[in-house]
Amino acid sequence: MTGSSRPRTNGENRTLVQRGGNELMHIVSDRVTVTFPQPDGGVFLAVDSFELQVQKGEFITIVGPSGCGKSTMLLVVDGLIRPSAGRLSIDGKPVTGPGTDRALVFQEFALLPWRNVERNVMLGLELQRKYSTSRMKEMAGKYIQMVGLQGFARHHPHQLSGGMRQRVGLARALAVNPEILLMDEPFAALDAQTREIMSEELLRIWEKDKKTVLFVTHSIEESVYLADKVVVMKGQPGKVKEIIPVDLPRPRDLSIKDDPHFVKLRRHIWNLLVEEVHWQVDGGEGSRS
Fold first, then answer.
1. SS3 of 193, please?
2. How far apart (Å, rounded) are the C-alpha atoms in residues 239 and 208?
3. What stretch of H or E contains 185?
4. Cβ proximity of 31 and 86 under 8 Å
5. Which of 51, 12, 34 is nearest to 85 (CA)?
6. Which letter does DSSP use for residue 238 in this model?
């Protein structure tokens, strides 16, 4: 990567992301630190001074070594974990708990086996207690069609493939119409072919309404293919190592993976992660960028 294509960082390697004009950032993580108590009375530092600014409608992917706090940060944004220090805000307001403006999609499909596809998608709507049953069925049908499962509304989870079950989970999240979609390795359990298809489908859906997305993945290729920016983390503790703009045209399809710039971005992220893994294997000795 050339110097001009990298974001500016200060001496602590904290990425400084600038606002575009006077536009208020949608999500701001300001030196968020997360600690957990240990059985021996000590404290485990999971995330240290995590800094990130996200504009409305951006698609952000997060990659890093196992245990670096990627999933923890999603839970902080969702409001399920409170920062031990620092501040996480959405539209300028501090996050103090979960809200209907956010929805989580997990790696595990988390579907209720006794409910069919339609009723699984309706679950979040039922919890909101805002709509009649007929209206909820109508809304569920819209998102079932959006994820390509029309004709399967009466099927139960055990009758579906892994990719289809994950589509149900995505439809359920979209049905509550969140402003922010938080996705924690949602395609990790899928085979390679299904994973690529799901990535294409996700971008197709995202292009329609441009929700703000934070997407955790271990796949470098997936991170570049989906993102406007890739956040590369280091750990432990988890910190931002580098934020990399993905200046590739949209809309995208799988053919973009052959683009020389795509290959360059993928290689750069690979080198960052290999450097991090070597540092951890060496027991944290030596220099670390």
1. helix
2. 32
3. none
4. yes
5. 34
6. B
- Helix, strand, coil tally for the chain in percent (to 5): 35, 25, 40
Share of the chain above pLDDT 90, in %: 72
According to DSSP, the β-strands at 85-90 and 93-94 are antiparallel
Return d(Cα 22, Cα 208) in angstroms, integer. Answer: 25
**Distance (Å, whole) CA 268 – CA 273:** 9
Mean pLDDT over the full length of the chain: 88
Residue for token pair 């439809």: 171
**Quick one: CA torsion of 42, 48, 54, 58, rounded to 10 degrees?**
-80
Q: Which amino acid is at 21?
A: G
- For residue 114, pLDDT beyond 90: yes
Query: Alpha helices of 155-259 — where are they, by DSSP H?
Result: 162-175, 192-209, 220-226
Write down how long the chain is: 289
> Over the stretch 193-216, which tens digit does the pLDDT of each residue have?
888 988 999 999 999 989 999 999
Distances (CA, A) of 4 to 7, 18, 61, 181: 8, 15, 21, 31
Domain 3-93+213-281 belongs to what topology?
A: Rossmann fold (3.40.50)
Using CA atoms, how far apart are residues 242 and 13, in angstroms rounded to an integer?
A: 8
pTM, two decimal places: 0.85
Q: Which residues is 9 bridged to in the sheet? A: 15
Cis peptide bond prior to 237, omega within 30° of 0: yes
Going from the C-alpha of 119 to that of each of 37, 124, 280, the distances in angstroms are 39, 10, 45
Specify whether the CB–CB gap between 222 and 195 falls below 8 A.
Answer: yes
Phi, psi of 24 (to 5 degrees): -75, 135
Only one residue has tokens 């209907």, namely 100
